[in-house]
Amino acid sequence: MDAVKKELTRKSKASRQDQRGKLISLACVTLIMLVVLSILYMITSKGLATFFENKMSIVDFFTKQVWNPSAKPQALVGALPMIVGSFSVTVLSALLAAPFAIATAIFMVDIAGKRGRKILQPVIELLVGIPSVVYGFIGLTVVVPFTRTVFGGTGFGILSGTFVLFVMVLPTVTSMYVDSLKAVPQFYREASLALGATRWQTIYKVIIRASIPGLLTAIIFGMARAFGEALAVQMVIGNASILPSDLVSPASTLTSVLTTGIGNTVLGTLPNNALWSLALVLLLMSLVFNLLTRFIGKKGAF
Amino acid sequence: MNAKRVDKIATAVIYLLVGIVILILVALLGFILITGLPHVTWSFLTSPASAFNAGGGIGDQLFNSFYLLFLTLLISFPISLGAGIYLAEYAKKNRVTEAIRITIEVLSSLPSVVVGLFGFLLFVVQFKLGFSIISGAIALTFFNLPLLTRNIENSLNGVSNLQREAGLSLGLSRWKTVTKVVVPAALPGIITGIILSAGRVFGEAAALIFTAGQSAPVLNYANWNPFSGDSPLNIFRPAETLAVHIWKINTEGIMPDASQVSAGASAVLIIAVLVFNLGARWAGNYVYRRITASK
């Protein structure tokens, strides 16, 4: 009797197999979560060292304009120039890219026939695929001389950074907005056209209105990409840690100071810790962008 | 102004903006290919870079890029396959799953320079691996994981439930159903995703400058012992990739032909990305045709 009972209550081969499989796949997921948590933990602890170990003032960090962490006897860690630089290129490039992205997305979903879509889809995919150093190289050889001759100054600066980032965020915003335009129910369009509205009236009064949350999500997503972009911006912005007074004089962003600085400072010293604080600001901003898209996305679901 | 005229004007404006977008891409590609391609010769592709003189090539950098790509995919594919399977097949709809999705999304939205700095801190400094291919490959894995995982999850979700039910009704365990039925059925999508992510990894530089390093030591391609210093297969040597090379010679290069070299290297990079993009489509379709026996 016991032998039979054992045989019947024992886990089958299939069930053991399944448990093992579930464990393996769960381990993979756990690994990814561990990676994220350790990134957050390490950057945070490194970034806060400036304020807790080196006793620099957080308020000064966000408000002072002089960035010279290796100055003696009093180091100066005012990150305002970089923060302003990062936000200016991000906002300006998003503003510049938005009309183009909206037009392209609307064209792809509501105006172009099958052929237009067939041409534009690869255009967008290719623009996404071009590596950022190539954008930086083109920025250096084409955009910088162009801004120098047209707008004056050295050519290096926020304006050049904006032009380069504009091309980089354009495909991101476009493809995300295309998705949310496709999600607008077809009967919205039919109802509007049936009421006698022209195509533009339908687009402007119905489709765009209905897809506003999607549009905002797309633009914030593009801004997140622009904010975190390092090398392309670093190559054209001029890398001067001073508060930018106009758009054509050299400036710097959080990412550009990070890429140029980390290799030239000694780990554990204040100049290095100060850079990690910049990385922390970058990390927190990307979390903020993430939260914003989630928040808007929840409101805008059809 | 009547509505019809407004409609015409608005349509014209949209056409204009779209035209500008297409023009930008054509100009970009045209510029890179026209300035770069004349410089791309066989010797440019195979000879090592030179730091001070004109006439250096990109041979080592090209090899490093492909080697790093290979290692990255080798590490990240199994992990993302497992994670994708968990999310698509096992995860229940609850708070924990939601938290997992949020973390993966956070990882995908982190700037690549932050991921690179983390790799620098953990592998280069903490684990004392130094600037090495393996540090770079792991940093790129972090960068690649969320996108590949999402792609695999979507491909698995695209497989019809009938297939799963058929597998289960034959008495297979759920795991066997997934590995023997669902994953093969989702293969075209998974392969397309891998190749697309390969294109992204191939062009990535920001995550690499502080992990794989910015120097390309002299390599001896006849040395196949992966543990010796000048072997190209050694994973503990620093390795400057093509994308990092372009960045480096443009920011601190002193060679006289820096702009020609970077134009040539950019052209190679762009062509590689083009090939990956087209290859992804072709390979997806090819595998689909093979496994479904449809024309």
UniProtKB/TrEMBL annotation, chain A:
Keywords (A to Z) from UniProt: Cell membrane, Membrane, Phosphate transport, Transmembrane, Transmembrane helix, Transport
> What Gene3D superfamilies does the annotation carry?
MetI-like (1.10.3720.10)
Q: What is its main location?
A: membrane
Membership in a protein family: Belongs to the binding-protein-dependent transport system permease family. CysTW subfamily.
Where located?
Answer: Cell membrane
* Organism expressing this protein natively: Pediococcus pentosaceus
The reply to whether Magnesium figures as a keyword in the UniProt entry is no
Q: Which GO terms describe its molecular function?
A: phosphate transmembrane transporter activity
The record's function comment reads: Part of the binding-protein-dependent transport system for phosphate; probably responsible for the translocation of the substrate across the membrane.
Protein name per the record: Phosphate transport system permease protein
- Which example biological process does GO assign this protein? phosphate ion transport
Query: InterPro entries this protein is in?
Result: MetI-like (IPR000515), MetI-like_sf (IPR035906), Phosphate_PstC (IPR011864), Phosphate_Transport_Permease (IPR051124)
- Segments spanning the bilayer are 21-43, 83-111, 123-144, 156-178, 206-227, 274-292
The ABC transmembrane type-1 domain extends over 83-293
UniProtKB/TrEMBL annotation, chain B:
Give the way it sits in the membrane.
Multi-pass membrane protein
* Stretches assigned to the ABC transmembrane type-1 domain: 62-280
Which Gene3D superfamilies does its entry note?
MetI-like
Q: Where is this protein localized, as stated in its record?
A: Cell membrane
- Which GO molecular function terms does the record list? phosphate transmembrane transporter activity
| UniProt xrefs under Pfam families | BPD_transp_1
**InterPro entries, per the entry:** MetI-like, MetI-like_sf, Phosphate_PstA
Q: Name one GO cellular component term.
A: plasma membrane
Q: What residue ranges are annotated as transmembrane? A: 12-34, 66-88, 100-123, 129-148, 181-202, 261-280
The record's keywords, sorted A to Z, are: Cell membrane, Membrane, Transmembrane, Transmembrane helix, Transport
Listed under GO biological process in this entry are: phosphate ion transmembrane transport
Looking up NCBIfam families in the UniProt record yields: 3a0107s02c (TIGR00974)
Regarding protein family, the annotation reads: Belongs to the binding-protein-dependent transport system permease family. CysTW subfamily.
Q: Which PANTHER family match?
A: ABC TRANSPORTER PERMEASE PROTEIN YQGI-RELATED, PHOSPHATE TRANSPORT SYSTEM PERMEASE PROTEIN PSTA-RELATED
> What protein is this chain from?
Phosphate transport system permease protein PstA
